[in-house]
Specification:
This protein has about 375 residues and is of the alpha/beta class. It is built from eleven helices and 15 strands. The strands form two sheets. The chain has an eight-stranded mixed sheet. The chain has a seven-stranded mixed sheet with strand order 3-2-1-4-13-14-15, covered by helices on one side. About 50% of the residues are buried.
Length: about 375
């Protein structure tokens, strides 16, 4: 057993415990709190009054799909031959030896959501992954977590420039709506002679129609957010919203929909019309309205190493430290459906932990140690 003592435990779900300890056994949190019996621990780490948090979670990345330092040969995020590709899975495109995995561990990120890119209206399924190992199947926490959908500039620009459909927002919405309608009709016909002819696209979307998987919808602009909510309401499917740069403009619509949101990349420059208003208004407004959200980097759009910095800047805009830390831990775990395993310090959860030199939201603080499934995967060497 591994123990860490004399730390401030930021549990996220159960408040802060000063001068606490944590006990880890077989990759799980066995106990935490004050005055723990650590006599059976094989190793005890002296925390020196530092801060211990759950491992950080970046719920929307393209880690291992768009590899660092490789160039075009390392880009596998979009199957850009068809705007409808729900049968594809990121599992088959992730390179666990992408240099960024090590950088994520050094930054305290222990779990990631990896999604297809946003060129296609339906881009395939994403998964949740631990940032360890070299075999993707051994690192998977949950697969799939949802089906990627993209609205707005990316699909209409890519296919429009190639003189294909969709070339407008109208065409994008029509294609998505028609595909969901066909999948719904296919689901209703199962068991009949009509269903004997297999429909590959509809079959891939049955988990969405049956509410077993959410649509994970890329949408920046306020009108694309409204379109996403409108279509999902029409077909009564579960969904989450990704990016929502203009979310503050339609806060009431988002709140009424009761949808979970991933906000970001807030630190990205205004690279196109639909994200020209990117800043920190949306997380501040949604926090005030009680709308659940998490921060994302969309790595490599913004380097994942800046995930904590994103939350730190948000506190300068008025987000509380508690809200900011939750938006990097428990909230993203909920967003990608793995909160039963990670996202907070609780007995029975995976021992994914980060030991910080000081308040993690302070720019001058460092990750001193990262632990995944009870194993130390990074330890800062002080020269």
């Amino acid at each position: 057993m591994l123990a860490i003592k004399n730390v401030t435990l930021e549990t996220v779900s159960q408040g802060r415990i000063e001068g606490g300890s944590i006990l880890i056994e077989e990759g799980k949190i066995k106990a935490l709190g004050k005055d723990l019996d650590l006599s059976k621990a094989s190793r005890i780490i002296e925390g020196q009054a530092r801060i211990l948090t759950p491992g950080l979670i970046d719920a929307h990345t393209h880690l291992g799909l768009n590899e660092s330092g490789v160039g075009p040969m390392g880009v596998d995020g979009n199957e850009a031959s068809n705007p409808l590709s729900p049968t594809t899975s990121v599992r088959d495109g992730i390179n666990m030896l992408d240099l960024s995995f090590e950088e994520f561990r050094e930054s305290g990120i222990t779990t990631v959501g990896i999604l297809p890119g946003s060129l296609n209206i339906i881009g395939g399924t994403g998964l949740a992954l631990k940032c360890r190992g070299i075999i993707v199947d051994e690192a998977i926490l949950r697969d799939p977590i949802g089906v990627k959908v993209a609205l707005g500039e990316n699909p209409k620009s890519y296919y429009g420039n190639n003189k294909k459909s969709p070339s407008t927002r109208m065409g994008s919405a029509a294609l998505l709506r028609g595909t969901l309608q066909k999948a719904k009709e296919y689901a209703n016909s199962l068991g009949s002679e009509e269903a004997l002819k297999e429909d590959e696209l509809s079959l891939a979307l049955l988990p969405v129609i049956n509410k077993e998987l959410p649509l994970m919808i890329h949408c920046h602009r306020h009108d694309d957010i409204a379109t996403a909510i409108r279509i999902c309401s029409e077909f009564d499917v579960d969904f989450v919203l990704e990016h929502i740069t203009d979310g503050y403009l339609v806060k009431d619509l988002i709140k009424k929909a009761g949808v979970h949101c991933a906000i970001g990349p807030t630190m990205h420059y205004a690279s196109k019309l639909e994200n020209k208003n990117r800043d920190f208004k949306t997380p501040i407004v949604l926090a005030r309205e009680g709308v659940p959200f998490c921060f994302i980097t969309d790595h490599p759009v913004v380097d994942g190493r800046n995930l904590m910095l994103t939350a730190s800047i948000a506190t300068q805009w008025g987000l509380s430290d508690e809200e900011a830390l939750r938006a990097l831990t428990l909230s993203p775990a909920q967003h990608i459906g793995v909160a039963d395993r990670v996202g907070s310090l609780e007995v029975g959860k995976d021992a994914d932990l980060v030991l910080w030199s000081d308040n993690p939201l302070e720019f001058t603080s460092f990750v001193d140690m990262t632990i995944i499934d009870g194993e130390i995967v990074y330890e800062r060497k002080i020269k």
